[in-house]
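Q: Hand in one record:
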Amino acid sequence: MNKIQLLNGEYAVENAPQARLEDGRFCVPQHYLKYQHTLASVEELILKLDYCDRYPIFVSEDNQGIYLQIGIIGLDNYADNSYGMANIDDIQHKTQVNEAEVKEETMKIVYGRKWRVEPKLPSSEIVQTAFLALKKAREHEVRELFRLTAFDKVTTPFNSHHDMAMLTNSYQQLQKQEPSKSWQQLQVELDNVCYDHTTFSIANIENRHDKYWLLEVDVLAGKTTQLPEMQQQPLLVLVLSKLTFNELCYQLIAELIRLSDRHVDEHFTFSQVARFSQENDIKAIAKISADTRKLHKSLAESDFEKHWRHENYQVDLTRVPHLNESVFSERIKGLVNTFSGIEGMLPNYR
């Protein structure tokens, strides 16, 4: 029997059923596996991933266990030569050689948050953790690259580093109402926005059912635009609930984040396969799932099912949160108790 070999850190539950693939090979579906991942096994798993050299995936370990971390290599978002509008224009007019020199001189690596990996986490979920970590690292960059010239300064209103206390204590100021604007007024405001050395021009506005507007926005990438999705995206279509600059900016950043996520969808691969690509047939994925989810239901596997469910229960026990006696713990207990007859494993209150 030609079987697909398990990865390091994976172990089949005793007498686990096997699924036959279209090419005749057999494999044990992941829900019939046990896991005991180590730093070495996670490193081997991450070596099978590929996305972009500018976003290396690090695997490390500390006293709390194994974690993944995304590195971001690129121009310093807050360096003087990449932050100001005037300086951006200067860079765009340099020669090819000088542009390369500028990029080389200002390249910098920064690191995203730590994404914890439990030893018993399925291999597929570790891959998905890396997938999500890449998306969030990229989104962090997207938010910093959206620059608005306001009050004679270049600002990054969507960045993730704003002081939460200051913002929440300025709530009334944040809730200012903005009147609707004409096409020309919106464009004047939009001229103050720059994103990764890219600017935007409103090509068309259409009102639909008096409830929302469709905006077609031309993407004008600069010579030093780095993000590949912006180099390949000539037009954006935005849906606005009102014709204000505020609404335009929020819908624009949402679309820019969506484009960033889609780039990861299409270019993130595991064993050279773009698992999350939207080119994958959704019904083919559904068929594979339907054919393998309930292999344990046959009578021949009845003893296996008892053992398998016991193993799953033991893993679930390791994921139950343990709460100390505190105001926070009492609040959680009160919240959970509002659901009568709740099933599953309740939090452990010490």
